Amino acid sequence: MTTALPTPPAPQRPLTGRVALVTGSTSGIGLAIAEELASLGATVVVNGSGSSPAKIKDGERIASSIVERTTSKASFVAADLKDPLAAAKLVAETVRRFGEIDILVNNAGIQHVAPIQDFPDEKWVEILALNLSAAFHATKAVIPAMKARGWGRIVNVASAHSLVASPMKSAYVSAKHGLLGLTKTVALEVAEHGITVNALCPGYVLTPLVEKQIPDTAKARGMTEDEVVREVLLKAQPTRKFVTPEEVAAAAAFLCSDGARSITGIALPIDGGWTAQ
Ligand code: NAD
Questions:
Q1: Where in the sequence is the domain holding 58, given as residue range(s)?
Q2: Element (H or E) spanning 53, and its range?
Q3: Which of 42, 118, 179, 206 could pair with 242 as two cysteines, CB 3.0-4.6 Å apart?
Q4: Does 81 sit in the ligand 1 pocket, CB within 6 Å?
């Protein structure tokens, strides 16, 4: 006679019970990070800037597809993080929906390529607002509750341009260097509270952000688009390959793990050797 053995419970995923807010996660690197954290069991809030009905529908479709693929909870919240008040509202809405934020990924970012003398003043203001100030406002808003719980992970999607410069990117390089300064400062302030704050520094990743700058760089440098990819973008990366969004997401997931609890205040290059030169 055979006795049926009870089915063992499904193993708990490492981020089960954690709530993650990933800014700028309707596309590219942010989307890959949201999917990776959800696949590890986290509940994720997906964010993008558009508040038109079409953009909201698109964001909700992205969140639903994360739920289908990962079985974790996911929800979309629109917020234009260039607005200095928007990050705190996004944090408050995430807490209203899911009760807390354990993981904050400051990822939303934009780029503009032009020589300094032609650099539009409004692009300077927008890039600083989104790529740097939004991370400050969101971090400020999540820290008190993380401190109270004694656990938190803040991952700032910085850039190889936090470590080195390239011409034609005055606002972006300034904002990304600033984001690394913010990362280190907050890491020191919260180190005794179980909270880590780190910066990922990707090289070139082929996302809409990079695709859009290829024609501008071609125009600014008098090159063809193929020459820009070969002679400007991939020339910087000794691997001669684009970094993938999934590779950046894997690093983000590691920094969110318990095993990474002693890693804080770092700039982690994911750049095919670019900044080793
Ligand atoms: P992307 O254009 O694919 O995605 C940008 C995301 O930000 C989108 O979800 C978009 O909706 C969102 N966004 C744009 N404006 C916003 C706003 N005002 N408010 C809220 N969200 C807004 O870009 P990506 O390449 O995935 O870039 C993501 C991050 O990675 C950026 O911070 C970028 O600087 C950084 N990064 C990218 C590369 C690269 O080569 N692609 C390299 C290093 C760092």
A1: 19-204+244-270
A2: helix 53-70
A3: 206
A4: yes
